[in-house]
Design a protein that fits this description.
Blueprint: H1 2-6, E1 12-20, H2 23-38, E2 46-53, H3 59-68, E3 85-92, H4 97-100, E4 107-116, H5 120-124, H6 140-149, E5 157-160, H7 167-174, E6 178-183, H8 187-190, H9 208-214, E7 221-226, E8 251-256, E9 267-269, E10 281-282, E11 285-286, E12 297-299, H10 302-316, E13 317-330, E14 345-354, E15 358-367, H11 375-386, H12 394-397, H13 399-405, H14 411-416
């Protein structure tokens, strides 16, 4: 039951008692499979509920069906709320049952409820009720699913390198983990004063920290800082330097939703022209130490960023630690972006959320111990990753962005489109 209580997508788990195409067949199945269990619940208060999937029954019909189950011999009181035991009769109706006027379902199933999942926390963390969000805040249900698949739990350290307003750290803190985060734009975490005017809220409330305070999760907030993943200040331990079990490495899990580069081109810290170095000494002062210094940014390859996420995870995750992140891809096979791989990371699962012409994937990896990694595969991966930086413009550096604004029309489809004279 501990497992189902951690689940987000599951509703309930039931002990199976029988099935049948008719009520009489259901009774025969229950007698054969579960009659030895009935005496245990003879004196308990109970509730029987009917779940009509794709169908509908009148109240009188429901009562008639429930009364048919009197052969169970329960003598306890019926309690619609707070019953000792809850039972459910599942009815599977035909797809067009309501249109065609079907009188009976295709199949019946009966079971005893063992436990329910944590579906209520989806509403607890609903973005509509959260004090501080932005346009890229991850949906509460998806954030909780991501944290669950990354195995967030008490005693673990989790990190989000694209933290934004903190959807993922909040989800991890709900499951007991201590969370850390960073973002290239520190304003997202700090909150902006102009958003507070006229709303009657303090700056402390309208910030990432304020979100943790709203849910009583401050004990799960490690810290947040301004940083770029490609130039991260976090100490990294290359392969072979992580110690026994990778214990020198810092994190048990890394979860994130990296920028897709659609609203604006993907950027990282640095200069497009390597000869320009605005942080060097000027007029006897090191400019990067000035309080008003704004670090320069340059366009960056989307594929290179994915490789950077994998490389960072390899050098900061403990052995068997989890990396879970979302990435976009086109639905068309010709434009599909392959799932990124690394010799030190084992793909645990790939879950897809489809939209119209594109989808996004939730990819889960497990950090492998160094002694299980093939050195030749690792060398080949490094050579391949170095080629990801080719390109200058945002579209050249990000094939997904290019396809998105072209509505993922393939070259073949472009050729087939009718041409307008004079254009």
């Amino acid at each position: 039951m501990r497992l189902v209580r951690r689940s987000i997508l599951t509703h309930h788990v039931y002990e199976y008692w029988g099935s049948g195409n008719t009520l009489e067949e259901l009774k025969a199945s229950m007698v054969a499979k579960s009659q030895h269990l009935w005496d245990k619940y003879e004196e308990c208060s109970f509730k029987i509920h009917i779940d009509s999937y794709q169908g509908r029954r009148s109240s009188a019909s429901r009562m008639q069906t429930i009364n048919f189950l009197s052969f169970l011999g329960f003598k306890g009181p019926v309690k619609m709320s707070g019953a000792d035991q809850e039972f459910k009769l599942f009815e599977q109706w035909a797809f067009d049952a309501m249109v065609s006027g079907a009188e009976h379902p295709l199949r019946y199933h009966f079971g005893r409820q063992l436990g329910g999942a944590s579906r209520e926390i989806i509403n607890k963390y609903d973005l509509k009720k959260r004090r501080y969000i932005n346009t890229t805040s991850m949906d509460s249900e998806l954030a909780l699913i991501t944290a669950n698949m990354a195995l967030a739990a008490p005693g673990k350290l989790f990190y989000d390198p694209f933290v934004g307003t903190g959807s993922f750290p909040i989800a991890c803190a709900e499951f007991g983990a201590i969370t850390w985060g960073s973002d290239i734009d520190g304003r997202a975490a700090r909150g902006e004063y102009n958003k507070l005017q006229g709303k009657g809220k303090s700056k402390a409330e309208m910030s990432l920290k304020g979100n943790f305070e709203q849910y009583g999760l401050l004990s799960g907030l490690g810290d947040m800082f301004t940083a770029d993943l490609t130039n991260s200040p976090i100490r990294r331990h290359p392969i072979g330097a992580g110690g026994a079990g990778g214990r020198r490495r810092l994190f048990d899990g890394i979860i994130c939703d990296p920028p897709y580069g659609v609203r604006e081109g993907l950027r990282v810290l640095g200069c497009r022209d390597a000869e320009k170095r605005p942080w060097i000494v000027e007029a006897g002062k090191e400019r990067y130490k000035e309080p008003d210094f704004v670090a320069p940014k340059k366009p960056y390859s989307f594929h290179a960023m994915l490789d950077d996420i994998l490389a960072f995870a390899v050098e900061t995750l403990v052995d068997r630690g989890r990396l879970s992140f979302w990435m976009p891809t086109a639905n068309d096979q010709e434009q599909e972006i392959a799932v990124p791989t690394h010799p030190c990371l084992e793909i645990v699962s790939v879950c897809t959320q489809p939209f119209n012409k594109w989808s996004r994937r939730l990819i889960n990896y497990r950090r492998l111990p160094d002694d299980t990694v093939n050195e030749d595969d690792l060398a080949a991966w490094k050579v391949k990753a170095e080629r990801r930086h080719e390109g200058v413009t945002a579209d050249e550096l990000n094939p997904f962005r290019k396809g998105y604004f072209k509505k993922f029309v393939t070259e073949e489809e472009t050729k087939q489109q009718p041409q307008v004279d004079g254009k």
